[in-house]
Design goal:
It is built from 19 helices and eleven strands. By secondary structure, it is of the alpha+beta class. Strands 1-2-3-7 form a four-stranded mixed sheet. Strands 4-11-8 form a three-stranded antiparallel sheet. A two-stranded antiparallel sheet has the order 5-6. Helix 13 crosses helix 18.
Length: 465
């Protein structure tokens, strides 16, 4: 059940549905969301009514207003059961965001059931996020090895060359990290990761890919119930034994989706910041300052630009409007960071940036995997600049292609020219190399990495460039 709502409309105030709404997802938004945020801010102040793919919602643009909503989970709770229009059957049946929001996992769920699930998540993630824990140390070694393998794969052409770091490094690396967390048996994980990739791209094959992925995750969850291991599904089940296979698969879907897209975008954006920033790479990456560099990056270009909605339990004044109980309120991280009253306090040239960014949320509902995601991105960026002594953009920074969705914003591609350094990589399995006859079967299948769909795809990028 949802929380008790005290009213259905803000008495004496114009209802959200009756307002003249500007569409959020426009060509301007695709090109540069900041243009849209500033236009809305000028017209409405720190909170604006907008049309989100055919559904009226409130978009929070102000930094202080965003903090107010994020920090008070009692007045501004999550939980789709609190959405008045949804409860009354007024959402379009074909609303594009419905499938992603209806997966009722830990980041969307509200009500009393959330608290026990959040505790279980924190417990299950602790071995991976505590740097002193043996499991965290093993994971760090695996991420470093995976990063080295990807770099070795795209740089096979020689000491210098060209690569799309988004497709060949930033996107596959966090998917590989997620496969370690989930504890997939054998080579099953690569096919699941490719399906996750298709789902994130939201192309014509996203629907079938999502069905296959959920089936795979359900199968994985059922196997962990029978034979637990040193992995996230097993730890989550131990901390929350009452989870069903379906419930567990939803949580695994969240971990896989959020970890892969968020971390991948963070890696790419940090690489661009280091290459184009006023500080040399040594200043941005030395003395443990890579996390501070990432803080600057998420301040300017957060991967997650809009959070999932919240719903006030009673009519609430926010900005220049009164928000009716049960109205959907979307906090825009990208807009909050661009709030002039907040942005003026941030010095973009400083090596020690503010940690006041909202990329992981704020208050009691902060992302439970933020340390894990930040650590994985940090390893990926570090290995790139250790293995590559020269790294330059192949396009002017203002011509890099971006992809925007209601939730995420990242680069479609990151074309670079590179020069290999003399830094040594970890040993790479023989099957990783892409010889002239790469499609032929290797001589000894037992000694090489299985030619899964993920590795065939990455190898094809090398052959086709």
């Amino acid at each position: 059940m949802g929380v008790q709502l005290n009213s259905g409309s803000a008495a004496g105030h114009e209802s959200l549905e009756s307002m003249s709404l500007e569409p959020l997802m426009t060509r301007d938004y695709e090109r540069d969301p900041a243009i849209v945020y500033e236009r809305l801010r000028q017209a409405h102040g720190p909170v604006a009514p907008v049309d989100l793919l055919g559904v009226p919602v409130w978009l929070v643009l102000g930094y202080e207003e965003s903090l107010r909503v994020l920090r008070d989970d009692h007045v501004w709770p999550k939980g789709l059961e609190n959405w008045r229009a949804r409860r009354e059957g007024r959402l379009p049946a074909d609303w594009p965001l419905a499938p992603s929001l209806d997966v009722n996992h830990v980041l969307i769920q509200g009500g009393e059931g959330y608290r026990g699930l959040k505790v279980a998540w924190d417990t299950a993630l602790r071995p991976f996020q505590d740097p002193r824990h043996p499991v965290a140390k093993q994971l760090k070694a695996k991420i470093t090895r995976d990063a080295d393998e990807l770099i070795t794969l795209f740089s096979q052409g020689g000491r210098t060359g060209w690569a799309d770091l988004s497709a060949q490094f930033s996107r596959p690396l966090p998917l590989m990290v997620a496969s370690h967390l989930l504890g997939f048996p054998g080579s099953q994980h690569d096919d699941a990761l490719m399906d996750m990739w298709r789902v994130l791209d939201a192309g014509p094959d996203a629907g079938p890919a999502l069905e296959r992925l959920l089936a795979t995750l359900s199968e994985l969850g059922a196997s962990k119930m029978k034979e637990p291991g040193d992995d996230f599904p097993s730890y989550l089940l131990a901390a929350h034994p009452g989870l069903s296979v379906e419930e567990l698969s939803r949580e695994l879907m969240m971990l896989l989706g959020m970890t892969s897209d968020h971390v991948g975008i963070l890696i790419s954006n940090t690489v661009v910041e280091v290459i184009t920033g006023s500080l040399p790479p040594s200043a941005s990456l030395s003395a443990g300052l890579i996390r501070e560099t990432m803080n600057r990056v998420v301040m300017q270009k957060p991967p997650l630009i809009n959070f999932v909605p919240r719903f006030p339990v009673t009519d609430m004044k926010l900005g220049d409007y009164t928000i009716a109980a049960g109205d959907p309120v979307w906090v825009s991280v990208g807009a909050a960071h661009a709030d002039p009253e907040f942005a003026a306090k941030v010095c973009p040239e400083s090596t020690i940036s503010t940690r006041a960014h909202l990329s992981w949320g704020a208050g009691p509902r902060q992302c439970p995997a933020r340390e894990l995601a930040g650590g994985a991105a940090s390893i990926g960026v570090s290995r790139l600049f250790e293995r590559l002594s020269g790294l330059e953009l192949s396009l002017p920074v203002d011509q890099l292609p971006w992809r925007s969705s209601p939730f995420m914003r990242g680069l479609r591609s990151l074309p670079v020219r590179y020069t290999l350094s003399d830094a040594a990589a970890l040993p790479v399995p023989a099957g990783l190399a892409v010889p002239a006859g790469a499609d032929s079967a290797p001589a000894d299948e037992a000694t090489v990495r299985p030619r899964s769909s993920l590795w065939r795809y990455l190898a094809g990028l090398v052959r086709g460039r």
